[in-house]
Prior knowledge:
Tetrahydropterin Synthase, Chain A, 4-stranded antiparallel β-sheet, 3-stranded antiparallel β-sheet
Amino acid sequence: MSKKITVLPYEKGLLYKKGRFIKLLDSGHYTIYPWQSSHIDKMDTREHTCVTEKKEYLTTNRCSVALVFVIRYKVIDPVCAAHTVENYHQQIIQDLQFATQKYIRAQTLESIFNKTNELLTNIEEEVIVAAKEYGICVRTLQIDEITSPRVSSEAIDIWEYEKGLLFCQGKFEKILDSGRYTLHSWQHSTIIKVDTRETTKNIQVKNIYTKNDIKVNIALRIHYKVTEPQKICTVKDYDSQIFQDISELLEQDIRNHTIEEALHENTIAQKLQKEVIKTKQYGIEITSIKIESIRVPHKEDQVIDIWEYEKGLLYREGKFEEIINCGRYVIRSWEPVHIVKLDLRESSQTIQGQEILTKDKIGIRITLVAQYKIIDPIAAVHNVENYQQQLYQDLQLTLRENITGRLVEEILEDRDALSQQLLEEVAPRGEKYGILVQRIGIKDIILPGVVRNVFLQEVEADRRGRADRIAARYAISVARSKANAAKILQENPNVMRLKELETLAELASKEGNLIIIPGLNNLYSSGTSGASDGKV
């Protein structure tokens, strides 16, 4: 049966006979008969447009970038396209991906975004050359999309009253005027916006002493503006720096005046404004300074309660006077008095999970608990900065010294001896700063997993050996008892007869069973002459 094939105007036909290419056919109608052993393959010669799938590539600095291409191509040599590759469409995509990977791998992420056109030209040239080898003409190649997970954009608006400081990789580049600017993450750039309008700031400067040692608080109002934006980067925070500079100058001026002069002095603000020239070093111009108020702070009386279990150390003008007992004490605002309270109850100090190497180089973790109380409040405050921290350090160092000189087995076998040794060494040290260490105990000893398994195996083997020894002793005892019984039965036949009678009595007590025992004639032969006839 014949087969009709139509080759359309935009197609080319490839005639094969017995699997062998014969010729190229133009558009038209063709009839193939079975006896000819022929077939015709059609090939579309129109221009094709292909949008590739998004594919990620790695740059030379190990960044990921994803690209989508739009490629237009057409078949110019149908015979070559059919005979050179299995699928020319897939081959074009593969060649495109290979060329892209080749050029992407040789560039950084920044150069790819900066030189996209150059990258596209190189890829296109390589794909065109590769496609010609199998009869394909690549007309155009475009990048439809290029993205990176690490690339983001940020639009920054700088208003009319602002200036922008552009930094690239942490280095100042230039000052930006008002407008919209877009920063890409690969540029490693930052814009700092600076407000150039005049700003009003209220400042409170507290605890300034006058010439006659009266403490005052001063409220200021200052007006300033940024005149040189690039210089504000010389300080971390120019607002804080302004406060610091004005506070220092104000303290110097007030220190030269009595409280009466300070309250009635109108020239302090003017003098202060003339002296504040340091701010120009970081681009700030102070236009005016006004003192709003100068006040002497009121100090309230202080009430201190000392409980039954506490002691108080009374200091006057920084000098210790006496130890005070429990009660309520009122310190007037004008009195230069300070009271330190100490708790005399028994307390505990825990040294948590210390990692220490033993003498046999095994790392163990030990938790230590010490019980102590204050016996000399004066020494506890005067001899050390913090008696609790000092006790902690003494316990920690003494523990390390003792552990590093002992084997693991010694530590595990006699924890009480170790605790006693620690107590004997730490107690004298604690007495130097008024602490009585009453007891030290080892709370936890944590061994490494491997060492713990070894000790468990030793304990298991020891217990198994004990069990075997007990079983052996029991077996020997049973054998000895049996030997003694056999000897008694051999030496006393009547005992043997008595045992036989007990067995018969036990058997006879069971009902419902008929038991026949032969040889009863001699049962009483040796013991009783009346039973010699064998009847029971």
